[in-house]
């Protein structure tokens, strides 16, 4: 699982490493990617529109996209804990 992809900025070298990891295992393992970035923002994350497009093309070929909308579960949990005091 790759969690919080795009939450922290990637260096150009980190972006290449993430790309190589995903491209290398594409169609050979199941992968869950959690991100708060829209696909359009991936070109900035990977510093290159061609790399981002190629990566997304591979990822969405055989995937199921689950879009979560609403408040953060962590935030809601924190709020419920604090309100019990």
Description:
There is one protein chain. This protein is mainly alpha-helical and 85 residues long. 49% of the residues lie in helices and 8% in strands. It has helices at residues 12-25, 42-45, 49-61, 73-83; strands at residues 2-5, 33-35. It has a two-stranded parallel ribbon. It is elongated, with a radius of gyration of 16 Å. The mean pLDDT is 85.
Number of helices: 4
Q: In percent, how much strand structure appears in the residues?
A: 5-15%
The biggest sheet amounts to: 2 strands, parallel
Mass-distribution shape: elongated
Any low-confidence stretches, pLDDT <50, length ≥5? none
Oligomer: single chain
C-alpha termini separation: 35 Å
The percent range for helix content is: 40-55%
Order of helices and strands, N to C?
A: EHEHHH
Topology:
Elements (H helix, E strand, L loop, with lengths): L1 E4 L6 H14 L7 E3 L6 H4 L3 H13 L11 H11 L2
Parallel strand pairs: 1-2
Task: Give a brief rundown of this model.
Helices cover 49% and strands 8% of the residues. With 85 residues, the protein is mostly helical.
Features:
49% helix, mainly alpha, 4 helices, 85 residues, two-stranded parallel sheet
């Amino acid at each position: 699982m790759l969690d919080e992809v795009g939450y922290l900025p990637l260096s150009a070298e980190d972006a290449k490493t993430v790309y190589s990891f995903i491209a290398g295992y594409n169609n050979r393992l199941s992968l869950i990617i959690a991100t708060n970035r829209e696909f359009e923002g991936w070109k900035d994350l990977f510093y290159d529109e061609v790399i981002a497009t190629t990566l997304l093309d591979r990822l969405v070929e055989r995937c199921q996209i689950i879009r979560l909308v609403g408040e953060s579960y962590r935030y809601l949990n924190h709020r419920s804990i604090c309100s019990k005091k």
